[in-house]
Design brief:
Order of helices and strands: HHHH
Main location: mitochondrion
Radius of gyration: 15 Å
Protein name: Cytochrome c oxidase-assembly factor COX23, mitochondrial
Function: Required for the assembly of cytochrome c oxidase.
Subcellular location: Mitochondrion intermembrane space
Keywords: Disulfide bond, Mitochondrion
Structural class: mainly alpha
């Protein structure tokens, strides 16, 4: 059963639709380290699952926000590569 008091600590799913600037995320990291500009969306979806007893249907908005974020990030990376911009 979801806990209403805990759900207030979850961000709005739409707050995590846009990925963070991946170039800033890569700064200070070794090239082989995994960087996820959609980490906030990922964590929010996992937290939602924990708070809703792993009821996937209760967290669909968070899953969609994560997918949108990832798609935007991948598209941005493709665009940068096509235009000769790198993550350096």
């Amino acid at each position: 059963m979801p806990n209403d008091a805990d759900s207030s600590s979850l961000p709005d799913p739409q707050d995590n639709v846009e990925p963070l600037d991946y170039k800033q995320q890569f700064q200070g990291r070794h090239p082989s380290q995994f960087v996820d500009p959609c980490e906030a969306a990922s964590k929010a979806s996992l937290k939602c699952m924990e708070q809703n007893d792993f009821d996937r249907n209760a967290c669909m908005d968070y899953f969609h926000a994560y997918r949108e974020c990832k798609a935007a990030w991948i598209e941005r990376r493709k665009d940068d590569r096509r235009n000769g911009r790198t993550s350096d």
